[in-house]
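Backbone geometry tokens:
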Amino acid sequence: AAGGLERYLDSLRRELRAPDPAVLSVLLALLAVALSLLVWRLLQGRRGGRRAVLLLGLCDAGKTLLFARLLTGRYRDTQTSITDSSAAYRVGSDKGANVTLIDLPGHESLRLQFLERFKAAARALVFVVDSVAFQREVKDVAEFLYQVLVDSTVLKNAPALLIACNKQDVTMAKSAKLIQQQLEKELNTLRVTRSAAPTSLDGPTAGGPAQLGRKGKDFDFSQLPMKVEFVECSARGSKGEDGDADLEALEKWLAKIT
């Protein structure tokens, strides 16, 4: 019996030294699957830790009223914000997921410093556009959006981006399609002029603004690392203070990104 056990152990040692190729292939495949799952869990954990949805845009685009409507459904008079406002927003039913809505000031002297404060926590960005004043403000809108899109943290985290074309209750409001076309044109122009601008004597700084879109091609939103969508909405609603807001497309998008 002892001799038989010794022969079995010798055989096992030989198998371990020279494993069956089929067995080795299975083990390597299982190891690859395990590593893939680990990487996926890590990425999901990082994304899951970002629970903020930032409301961005110029002054008077309607961000604060939109913020109030999403949270309470009710109309309220608003004024230009000089600081951020935040609140938990439950997506869908009572058992839906929570995100934190953060309304950021749109004033030129404040908007970038508040973006800097909250951008690392952003799961998604809602860039609110005044569809009525758009033709007059298109250059300013594109300038701010450009600064957001070339930010290194935004590019790295690639939060979902929604361009919310607000004030669609007004007859003169521009459509989401026209706003998209005009923004792509203006962003392309900005990209060309910025890339042609002379650099400082010290050369480009490390970690400076990245190139927008694909070099050698006219810019369009599909070239960005994040998914970009456009919706039409109205925080005021067609009946003003007495009616409901038209935010169905925005609410569906919020449910989707969570």
Summary: The domain at 50-196+210-257 is CATH 3.40.50.300 (Rossmann fold).
